């Protein structure tokens, strides 16, 4: 029974690896196609990420260029490269939450049209999914209430406090009167 889903997943992964041309988005060719040769590399860190995870991209394909754009079928949106600390351009990208496991091509095109690079990112699935967004923790959920603009207790709180105080005073007075009667009587 379990071999059917496993066979299906293996077939999908094999198709993804075997036909990367169908998975790669079309890149518009600015200017002369002869000028548009691979002139660098793209490094992806981490090289393997799970759906919903983030990766950092770095390329040296643009030389002294100041920007580039890139993408992959595995990413939620196009990556915009800007100068990074040191040599090259950097960008961040998020893996689509519905990305199937497998290797995906990552492409980068320099905005001046004179540089291009490709690389690979691998999507893996973990058995225990990790949360994509931070969990609201601490304060038992009262953190949102603490941000409300309240000057202090209102009339209902004051009335409740006054009623409870009156009951407490009456109970103490009644008990004290009973003790005095039992001592004298």
Task: Sum this structure up briefly.
The chain is 29% helix and 26% strand. With 185 residues, the chain is α+β, with helices and mostly antiparallel strands. The chain has a seven-stranded mixed β-barrel.
Q: Helicity range of the residues?
A: 25-40%
| Beta-strand segment tally | 8
Strand order of the largest sheet: 1-3-6-5-4-7-8
Order of helices and strands: HHEEEEEEEEHH
The main sheet comes to: 7 strands, mixed, barrel
User: Distance N terminus to C terminus?
Assistant: 88 Å
Mean pLDDT: 75
Keywords: Signal
Protein name: Sortase
Organism: Streptomyces salyersiae
Overview of the structural elements:
By secondary structure, the protein is of the alpha+beta class. It is built from 4 helices and 8 strands, in the order H-H-E-E-E-E-E-E-E-E-H-H. A 7-stranded mixed barrel has the order 1-3-6-5-4-7-8. It is rod-shaped, with a radius of gyration of 33 Å. The model is unreliable at 20-36 (pLDDT under 50). Residues 40-53 have a biased composition (Low complexity). Keywords: Signal. This is Sortase. Residues 29-92 are annotated as: Disordered.
Features:
185 residues, alpha+beta, 7-stranded mixed β-barrel, 26% strand, signal, Sortase
Note the topology:
Elements: H1 3-18, H2 20-23, E1 38-45, E2 48-49, E3 54-59, E4 68-71, E5 79-83, E6 89-94, E7 102-110, E8 116-123, H3 143-146, H4 155-184
Parallel strand pairs: 1-8, 2-8
Antiparallel strand pairs: 1-3, 3-6, 4-5, 4-7, 5-6, 7-8
